[in-house]
From TrEMBL:
<dbReference type="InterPro" id="IPR004639">
    <property type="entry name" value="4pyrrol_synth_GluAld_NH2Trfase"/>
</dbReference>
<keyword id="KW-0627">Porphyrin biosynthesis</keyword>
<keyword id="KW-0413">Isomerase</keyword>
<dbReference type="Pfam" id="PF00202">
    <property type="entry name" value="Aminotran_3"/>
</dbReference>
<dbReference type="GO" id="GO:0042286">
    <property type="term" value="F:glutamate-1-semialdehyde 2,1-aminomutase activity"/>
</dbReference>
<comment type="similarity">
    <text>Belongs to the class-III pyridoxal-phosphate-dependent aminotransferase family. HemL subfamily.</text>
</comment>
<keyword id="KW-0963">Cytoplasm</keyword>
<keyword id="KW-0663">Pyridoxal phosphate</keyword>
<comment type="subunit">
    <text>Homodimer.</text>
</comment>
<dbReference type="InterPro" id="IPR015421">
    <property type="entry name" value="PyrdxlP-dep_Trfase_major"/>
</dbReference>
<comment type="pathway">
    <text>Porphyrin-containing compound metabolism; protoporphyrin-IX biosynthesis; 5-aminolevulinate from L-glutamyl-tRNA(Glu): step 2/2.</text>
</comment>
<dbReference type="InterPro" id="IPR015422">
    <property type="entry name" value="PyrdxlP-dep_Trfase_small"/>
</dbReference>
<feature type="modified residue" description="N6-(pyridoxal phosphate)lysine">
    <location>
        <position position="265"/>
    </location>
</feature>
<dbReference type="InterPro" id="IPR015424">
    <property type="entry name" value="PyrdxlP-dep_Trfase"/>
</dbReference>
<dbReference type="InterPro" id="IPR005814">
    <property type="entry name" value="Aminotrans_3"/>
</dbReference>
<dbReference type="InterPro" id="IPR049704">
    <property type="entry name" value="Aminotrans_3_PPA_site"/>
</dbReference>
<protein>
    <recommendedName>
        <fullName>Glutamate-1-semialdehyde 2,1-aminomutase</fullName>
        <ecNumber>5.4.3.8</ecNumber>
    </recommendedName>
</protein>
């Protein structure tokens, strides 16, 4: 078997940066990435034979842990009948029924193949529906690598220092208004000046691509009110938070209903899937019913649908959300207590199975606060954790994920390592 070092050397000759998605290259934390040979439950086994407790969980989808037996069985059953048909298949109807049942805003839904496709299509639909061009996004929110959304973007774009990507025409970016998250005056002023030009607000309701940021009281309610009163479409990007912060996502958790919702990650059970859905009146503007074109050769793929249906059904049956709250709080409290004892400024925003680590004096409310945090402390902690068998996301601007396969021993071991890592800073 080839080691990670050998594989990465070869990969760099063949693949730009040696990776198929930039954050995987470990550029900001330093060092070379490991290659994963296999994964089971909450653990990764690297090509070098190391076993790691995983808090990345394939960037969110593995809410039941890796290689879940029920999801594997569902894929195996679907595989008996073929891999792709290019016609409607029964799984798509079951998936749509589940999504309409679970996600409060979704009356109709269209499947696609990634979170990027979901947000791109939701934006096009909002523009087609309103006949307007401008959209509002928030600094530090990441909605996939859609041209008009790679403006002050989070995630890998921010990690690698290019939140405004090259290759995006200024005329495209000009249609995107970027505001600070948690700044009510900014969004009020924007609507007062050009409310009749704004097709949509797209927002990660709990931004999780700039570290994890929580909304101030009343902020998301304000976005809802402004969209309603100005005839703009409110799009929640719940690619990350959907089925994770509650079965029905943030919208269920806080009781605010957007007009459209972008979904991804968990609904594919680890296979490539996205979806967008919302009010039937808006969704019916999509082709073949309406003038907004959107399509996909592999959209509604039977294997991906079977995996996603199994993942969602298991969440419905098991209701892991109270346990996530307990596990998340256990990790948060241990890390905060250690930082306090050491006199180190640390914030650990945490909601259920998601938590972030900001080495900052005050709670992080926006992009500016996040990018002012001591990222070198995070990098030190990342390296310490990896050397001691715990895999955190390889960037201070990402969010850690807990899955149902993290058992008490995993959490205790990981806390022990992270506590020692904080002491080592
Ligand atoms: N929206 C959000 C909130 C995301 O976190 C991501 C990916 N991390 C995307 C959209 C894009 O999804 P994908 O990588 O599947 O294209």
């Amino acid at each position: 078997m080839k080691s990670s070092e050998q594989l990465f050397k070869r990969a760099q000759e063949l693949i730009p940066g040696g990776v198929n998605s930039p954050v995987r290259a470990f550029r900001s934390v330093g060092g070379a990435p490991f290659f994963t040979q296999s994964a089971k439950g909450a653990h990764l086994t690297t090509a070098d034979g190391a076993e790691l407790i995983d808090f990345v969980c394939t960037w969110g989808p593995a809410i039941h842990g890796h290689n879940d037996p029920d999801i594997r069985a569902a894929i195996a059953t679907a595989l008996e009948n073929g891999t792709s048909f290019g016609t409607p298949n029964p799984y798509e109807v079951t998936m749509a029924e589940l999504l309409v049942d679970i996600v409060p805003s979704v009356e109709k839904v269209r499947m696609c193949n990634s979170g990027t496709e979901a947000t791109m299509s939701a934006i096009r639909l909002a523009r087609g529906y309103t006949g307007r061009s401008k959209i509002i996004k928030f600094a530090g929110c990441y909605h996939g690598h859609v041209d008009s959304l790679l403006v002050k973007a989070g995630s890998g774009a921010l990690t690698l220092g290019n939140p405004d990507s090259a290759g995006i025409p200024a005329s495209f970016a000009a249609e995107t208004i970027v505001l600070d998250y948690n700044d009510p005056e900014a969004v009020q002023a924007c609507f007062a000046q050009q409310g009749d030009e704004i097709a949509a607000i797209i927002v990660e309701p709990y931004p999780a691509n700039c570290g994890l940021i929580l909304p101030d009281d009343g902020y998301l309610e304000l976005l809802r009110e402004l969209c309603t009163s100005n005839g703009s479409v409110l799009i929640f990007d719940e690619v990350m938070t959907g089925f994770r912060l509650a079965l029905g996502g943030v919208q269920e958790r806080i009781g605010i209903t957007p007009d459209l919702t972008a979904l991804g990650k968990i609904i594919g059970g680890g296979l490539p899937v996205g979806a967008f859905g919302g009010k039937a009146e808006i969704m019916d503007h999509l082709a073949p019913l309406g003038p907004v074109y959107q399509a996909g050769t592999l959209s509604g793929n039977p294997l991906a649908m079977a995996a996603g249906i199994a993942a969602l059904q298991k969440l419905k049956d098991s209701n892991p959300y109270p346990l996530f709250e307990t596990m998340g709080a256990q990790i948060r409290e241990a890390l905060l207590a250690t930082a306090k004892e050491k006199g180190l400024a640390l914030q650990v925003p945490q909601v259920g199975s998601m938590f972030g680590l900001f080495f900052s004096e005050a709670p992080v409310r926006n992009y500016q606060d996040a990018t002012s945090s001591q990222t070198q402390h995070f990098n030190t902690l990342f390296k310490y954790a990896l050397d001691h068998g715990v895999y955190l996301p390889p960037s201070a601007y990402e969010t850690c994920f807990i899955c149902t396969a993290h058992n008490g021993t995993d959490v205790e071991q990981a806390v022990e390592v992270l506590v020692a890592g904080i002491r080592s800073i």
